[in-house]
Specification:
heterodimer; A: 1001 residues; alpha+beta; Ubiquitin-like (UB roll); FAD/NAD(P)-binding domain; seven-stranded mixed β-sheet; six-stranded mixed β-sheet; 28% strand; B: 91 residues; Folate-binding fold; four-stranded antiparallel β-sheet; two-stranded antiparallel ribbon; 1 helix; 6 strands; 36% strand
């Protein structure tokens, strides 16, 4: 770089440590302490990107989180690259690589810029309006629109970085480490409160940190010097936690806040390796002090978007903090006094200032006088009507404003410049206040929205509360802090504060031009390319609500969420529509305040930590035997056990046949188990199940169906009476926790008089189920002492037993229709019991079977699976299970609903069996059933809920719910599929062993 | 995110609780005596108030106890919590 844009007196930049980085492939240099933006500016690079819609060249506009244009793609690694990052917030590190976005082939020559020439034909909502017709063409349009839309590129591979979540509790949380935040932090810490101070920058101090101006003094020292001492004094407090590089992202109710701490983003690639990148702090604060400061507003005039147009206060920060000149011939354009601070700083650093163009008639404040004393020329009552220069501003055109400010008068004059500083006043950052539910009020004097009422324990202080001048900031902050923390005094009572006071104010939302509005481009939203014209068009087309105008014109959307543009949009809308701004209100500020990475949001909850995986005590055995697993809720269940490259179908057919021919073994440990005790346990079961329980003998088991209060089937399972007042209930695998919650709810809220205690024991027991004609022989080898005769141990009964001196419960119950036992043993013995049973069954070719075979076997018997054959709209009567509804019981959950006018309808969908005319044809589960073939349109009368090929019947079988199904037995129905129609016959739901002979085989 | 004062455990984060809808809807003692309309009133009809509402909450990931809450649904302010069976404190 031939131009020297660095001055050497910055205390915040370490000019001894040079850092190399790449921008758009070119190697450049900056210093430690730079942001990417300041380093680019020091290299005389303003053009960093292209705008969203018209692809106009855009440059760095700000120095903070509100940056709309300087958003870049960081890195080029397919898993680590990050789109849409703000160059103004990226701290420079060795090896940083960044590139421009939204341009092709390059930022200097961008083909998309052709849109700029067509811009008169691309007004607000152009895409909505144009691509409506013909509707069928949308798919074609969409491809091209999507291709041209969007800013950066997402990474294509998983993120390799580590992220973290942590909780934080404190008495006082202070958001923002500017002058008022520091006063608050010290005051709170001095009063022994557990205090946390957050700031999104890498150091504390805000803008006062580099306010070295004669006009701003505290106790006769520069405000910056005074503040530096205050910051140093914070180090002595052990009860004060300071977190820099930490952005408050969301402020929820009850003072619950989320903050993102950047831990390694500022480090070199080597330094950041293996470290946690970002941490999400989940903060619960008793009190919150918001001290987030204010943002400078731009001015809205023709071609106000050229690279080189920068907010005036940002130019000041670049020169005073980073030691970077934004240009060598700078013009300033303003409506307020703060720009004169910039002018003085530039002047002191030897930068040529053409002039200050001020729309006001005059200003008599001390800072303006100071500037004029330095010989800085001011054009009072003037406005910029145009800027020139394509990739960098080269000159501005100015004219005198008319007395009413609505037009311009006199002759145009031209001023050569390479940078234009603009300032349209200040906007308090009230985003967090409104996120917490606070309501805003409007202050006419300087056109700002201010915090008004809040339900939370919080206050806003400093410029985010509308105090923009040093004396007001300190005095009012001090007063509010004392009141909020109930203090009588503080360190900040009797300071001698000198500052310039602004008395002359003037605001014009849309500055006039010598050309009609239609011929100008006064940009409002610099990221989304919406102009004042677009907003006015929206109003003409009938949009009134600010929320609608926002969505129609996209003003205030995008990655910056219109931080810079919102106020002017509101101003222009209010003016055009003739309403007061206070009545118009603002759009809703939603969290996060600045974009968060997905990594930060999910933290450690990735991969296998995303959700709990529950494994049975026998899991390892299934893995050894190469079982395929299926997810059932959080459980991993063995699905089938393929041998020698068997397909799933082949494995299931083999397993199902073996279980009926000889013996099968199933891991049923996942079934929910609830231990029920208490003197009213029987009465309780009477109330929750449809059938009667009082007469169930000790040692017997019974199947129960549980309904919702609306009469629909909710869950089912076998419950065993272990003792007079002791039962063990089994539930479905997926329903276990919901059933327990539901039962607890009834016990605690409806029937508190019942003496019943519920305990979930699902994880305490492993369950091994052995079924098949040889199951009795196998069990007799596992527990030789147990009398397994039908007389002593009949179907649906239970025995306590000892296996190798370990207590276990044996139930003779069956979900397959076979002679079958379930052994429950303490979990830790589950695997050895399983192996013992397997060993004992080897002689009988005992075959492990998974959930798929279990489903097939029960379907052969017509046993339902709740949640598969039922869906919350099926009553027990619909299931043709009328037998399980007690006629004698006065009440149970859901009873009354079983004879509502809708539930007693005869033509409800009812469970039936289906067999296909072609026994080899297996129906698809979920397939729809119709009553006539080849008729369109036709009503769907039911659907297939379960469907299998039964190896034991050598034919296809299915269960279905069908309208009026009970009465249609034997009739033909049709299942239309994509390429064919399958003919089916309605049958009984029981396909195999209707007489239940196999149970006692 | 609410901070909920469980009557049994004290203040806990909302993530430990689950909401259970409107409170004080008593299950009829004699459902069989009710007409379809009366039963439907109990079963389906809820007020869905904007403003102060009495509602059921469960400390699902804590003591598993159900309790009641007085909450303003428009500003989420929790005015009181009270145990099952107790009368609602004055709004």
């Amino acid at each position: 770089m031939s131009k020297n844009l660095r001055i050497t007196n910055s205390k915040f930049i370490d000019q001894t440590s040079r850092i190399s980085f790449k921008f758009d492939g070119k190697t450049l240099y900056g210093f430690k302490g730079d942001t990417l933006a300041s380093a680019l500016l020091a290299n005389d690079i303003h053009l960093v990107g292209r705008s969203f819609k018209y692809h106009r060249p855009r440059g760095i506009m700000t120095c903070g989180s509100e940056e709309p244009n300087a958003i870049v793609q960081l890195g080029n690694d397919s898993s680590m690259t990050e789109p849409n990052t703000r160059a103004t917030e990226i701290e420079l590190y060795e090896g940083l690589e960044a590139s421009s976005q939204n341009c092709w082939p390059s930022v200097n020559f961008d083909i998309g810029a052709i849109n700029n020439f067509f811009s008169p034909f691309i007004p607000a909502a152009f895409y909505y309006k144009t691509f409506m017709w013909p509707a069928s063409f949308w798919e074609k349009y969409e491809y091209f629109i999507r291709k041209s839309a969007g800013l950066g590129k997402s990474p294509t591979k998983p993120d390799k970085d580590i992220y973290d979540h942590k909780y934080l509790h404190c008495d006082v949380l202070i958001i923002g480490g500017g002058i008022s935040g520091i006063i608050a932090a010290k005051t709170a810490a001095q009063n022994n409160l557990n205090t946390v101070l957050l700031d999104d920058k890498n150091n504390l101090g805000g803008t006062t940190l580099f306010q070295n101006n004669e006009c701003f003094k505290i106790n006769n020292t520069y405000s910056s010097e005074w503040l530096k001492k205050e910051i140093e004094s914070l180090n002595s407090f052990k009860n004060l936690t300071i977190k820099t590089r930490t952005t408050l992202a969301a402020y929820h109710s009850y003072n619950y806040l989320l903050a993102r701490e950047n831990l390694t983003d500022h480090l070199s690639l080597i330094e950041k390796k293996d470290k946690i990148r970002q941490r999400l702090w989940k903060i619960r604060a008793k009190k919150v002090i918001i001290a987030t400061g204010a943002m400078e507003r731009p001015l809205i005039f023709n071609n106000n978007d050229r690279p080189g147009v920068i907010l005036s206060s940002s130019i000041k920060k670049y020169i005073d903090y980073y030691g970077v000149k934004c240009g060598q011939k700078i013009s300033l354009f303003t409506n307020n006094d703060t720009t004169y601070e910039t002018a003085i700083s530039l002047n002191k650093s030897g930068v040529t200032i053409n002039s200050v163009i001020d729309i006001r008639d005059k200003s008599n404040s001390s800072i303006v006088k100071e500037a004029e004393k330095l010989g800085i020329k001011v054009h009072w009552k003037h406005t910029v009507v145009n800027t020139n220069g394509y990739k960098r501003i080269s000159s501005i055109e100015l004219m005198k404003l008319s007395d009413d400010g609505a037009g311009v008068v006199g002759n145009k004059s031209k001023e050569e410049c390479d940078c234009l500083g603009i300032s349209g006043g200040w906007t308090p950052r009230v985003h967090l206040f409104t996120q917490s539910g606070g309501k805003l009020k409007f202050r006419d004097k300087d056109n700002i929205f201010l915090p008004d009422k809040s339900e939370s324990e919080q206050i806003s202080i400093g410029s985010c509360n509308g105090d923009f001048e040093l004396d007001d900031i300190i005095k009012n902050s001090n007063k509010s802090i004392k009141e909020f923390l109930n203090l009588n005094s503080s360190d900040y009572e009797n300071l001698e504060i000198n500052c310039s006071k602004e008395t002359d104010k003037k605001n014009i939302w849309l500055l006039p031009s010598n050309k009609p509005l239609g011929k100008t481009k006064p940009f409002l939203d610099f990221q989304n390319d919406s102009t004042a014209k677009d907003v006015k068009l929206a109003l003409r087309e009938g949009f009134k609500s600010i929320e609608h105008v926002k969505r129609y014109t996209t003003t205030g959307m995008g990655t910056d969420q219109g931080k810079l543009s919102n106020m002017h949009a509101l101003g222009i809308i209010a003016e055009t529509a003739g309403v007061k701004m206070g009545e118009l209100g603002t759009t809703t500020f939603r969290p996060p305040y600045t974009p968060l990475t997905f990594g930060t949001i999910v933290g450690r909850n990735v991969g296998e930590f995303f959700d709990i995986t529950r494994r049975t005590p026998i899991h390892d055995w299934h893995v050894e035997k190469k079982a395929e697993f299926e997810n059932v809720g959080q459980w991993k269940r063995a699905w089938y056990y393929p041998i020698n490259n068997e397909s799933m179908h082949e494995a299931v057919q083999r397993e199902a046949k073996a279980a009926r021919d000889s013996a099968g073994i199933l891991d049923a440990s996942t079934l929910g188990k609830i231990d029920i005790q208490g003197s009213d346990a029987s009465e309780f079961l009477n109330r929750v199940y449809t059938n009667a329980w009082s007469k169930l003998e000790i040692g017997k088991c019974r199947y129960g169906l549980m309904l919702n209060e609306d009469g629909m089937v909710y869950d089912d399972g076998v419950t065993t009476r272990l003792d007079e007042n002791h039962y063990i209930m089994t539930t479905t695998t997926g329903g276990a926790s919901n059933v327990l919650s539901k039962l607890e709810d009834y016990l605690q809220t409806e029937w508190p008089e019942l003496d019943v205690y519920l305990t979930s024991v699902t994880d305490n027991y492993a369950t091994v189920s052995i079924c098949g004609p040889n199951s009795k022989k196998i069990l007799s080898r596992v527990i030789p002492d147990l009398d397994l005769s039908d007389k002593e141990f009949s179907h649906m009964s239970f025995k306590n037993a000892l296996i190798d001196n370990i207590k276990c419960r044996v139930m003779r119950i069956s979900f397959t229709g076979e002679h079958s036992y379930e052994i429950n043993i303490q979990s830790s013995y589950g695997k050895s019991l399983w192996e013992k049973c397997f060993e004992a069954g080897k002689e009988f070719n005992i075959t492990p079977y998974g959930t798929e075979t279990m489903h097939l076997l029960r379907a052969e018997k017509g046993f339902i699976i709740t949640g598969q054959d039922t869906d919350g709209t099926i009553t027990p009567v619909d299931l043709q299970m009328d037998w399980i509804i007690s006629k004698k019981k006065y009440d149970f959950i859901g009873k009354r609903s079983l004879y509502r006018s809708d539930t007693i309808r005869e033509d409800r969908k009812q469970l039936v069996g289906l067999v296909t005319d072609d026994p080899k044809e297996v129906l698809e589960e979920g397939a729809q059933i119709v009553s006539e073939a080849n008729k369109k349109p036709i009503e769907m009368v039911g659907h297939v809920t379960s469907s299998y090929f039964s190896p034991n019947l050598n034919k296809s079988i299915a269960l279905a719910v069908l309208k009026n199904g009970k009465k249609l037995k034997g009739q033909k129905m049709f299942v239309p599929m994509k390429n064919k129609t399958i003919n089916v016959t309605i049958t009984d739901t029981v396909f195999l062993d209707k007489e239940n002979k196999r149970l006692n085989a | 995110m609410f901070l909920i004062n469980c009557p049994y455990c004290g203040e806990r984060d909302q993530s430990e609780f689950s909401a259970g809808g409107e409170a004080h809807i008593v299950r009829p003692k004699q459902p069989t005596e009710l007409s379809d309309d009366q039963w439907a009133e109990f079963l389906f009809m809820r007020k869905n108030i904007k403003g102060v509402q009495l509602e059921r909450w469960n400390h699902a990931h804590g003591c598993r106890k159900w309790f009641n809450m007085v909450r303003n649904t428009s500003d989420d302010k929790i005015h009181a919590v009270y145990k099952m069976g107790e009368k609602p404190p004055i709004k």
